[in-house]
């Protein structure tokens, strides 16, 4: 029996993610990864070409849990909600790698396939290609903002810091104890406002489209134009 288990791509990814979770994104190096696995650094290059390639493989594995199946029923609002919740949950398990993921899908095939589903569903629902791109980007801003910070945890538990000086923050010292619950509920509030606001815009555009066809519509109803030069 070999002293160490035989290297495999899945074992390398797991070890790399363990280091990132423990030491942060900057704490990962091929030398440290090799030591974690009990091998020489040169042994890793038969499985992964560069650290950047390895990070993309780890990212792809983490993001497999992002669920875009909600778009299959034709309800873009349900699809966005499911996607956002599952995305936040996936990132919450490994917050140290979030800065790397925040740069976008890059050349990750699975990420691009998911984005293609989102984009296609939004366009099919009547949004222009440019708007679909903006909606997907806005959703990522919301998800990654929630994953990168905890507003409630940023307060001190020392009541004297807030009492008397900030009368409207006299209970702020209680927030860290319920940070997880507040962060979740705050994300849900923002997500609901985002999707509800989009639904209002989408409905007004439907009215505007009817007006263009000769039907009555309230004055000032916005019209959408598909700026293909700016679409993706």
Automatic annotation (TrEMBL):
Residue ranges of the region described as Disordered: 211-232
Keyword flag GTP-binding: no
Alphabetical UniProt keywords: DNA-binding, Repressor, Transcription, Transcription regulation
Residue ranges of the TM segments: none
UniProt domain HTH tetR-type: residue ranges: 6-66
Origin: domain of life: Bacteria
Gene3D superfamilies linked to this entry: Tetracycline Repressor, domain 2
InterPro entries: DNA-bd_HTH_TetR-type_CS, Homeodomain-like_sf, HTH-type_TetR-like_transc_reg, HTH_TetR, Repressor_TetR_C, Tet_transcr_reg_TetR, Tet_transcr_reg_TetR-rel_C_sf
Comp. bias regions, Low complexity: 211-222
DNA-binding region: 29-48
Protein name per Swiss-Prot or TrEMBL: TetR/AcrR family transcriptional regulator
The organism of origin for this protein: Saccharothrix mutabilis subsp. mutabilis
